[in-house]
């Protein structure tokens, strides 16, 4: 089974341009508690490098592109994110890294919980240890 779970969003709009709607429990599979976005990520600087114990997120590259890597502790898969009409589900207990941000990349993230540093697993060795004990 693929680690990359894509969510296709309908693109609304007309001659004025496009409009994409994200709605809790409709095209986003959880109640939305937090939204954040990454902008101005410097060339060659990767981000992420953590997993979450309980948090579930959907990431959307609304502008530009970046490379998302998902790792379940056994295998690793990559997907280029470059479409504002496509979300990538970042499930709980999924190590994720974002690489190769374009200068114009805006990565929007929708989250199921408020920010909680205690929910982060920032050591890959700890992550693999926890996966093996689940
Ligand atoms: P971090 O999650 O480490 O960033 P990334 O995964 O993109 O590399 O977050 C960077 C900093 O921002 C860190 O000090 C925690 C803080 N932060 C918040 O205060 N609230 C938030 O909702 C998020 C996502 C991060």
TrEMBL record:
The keyword Cell cycle does not apply. Pfam families: FdtA. GO terms for molecular function: isomerase activity. Gene3D superfamilies: Jelly Rolls. CDD domains: cupin_QdtA-like. It comes from the Bacteria. InterPro entries: QdtA_cupin_dom, RmlC-like_jellyroll, RmlC_Cupin_sf. The keyword Isomerase applies. Keywords: Isomerase. Residues 4-130 form the Sugar 3,4-ketoisomerase QdtA cupin domain. This is dTDP-6-deoxy-3,4-keto-hexulose isomerase.
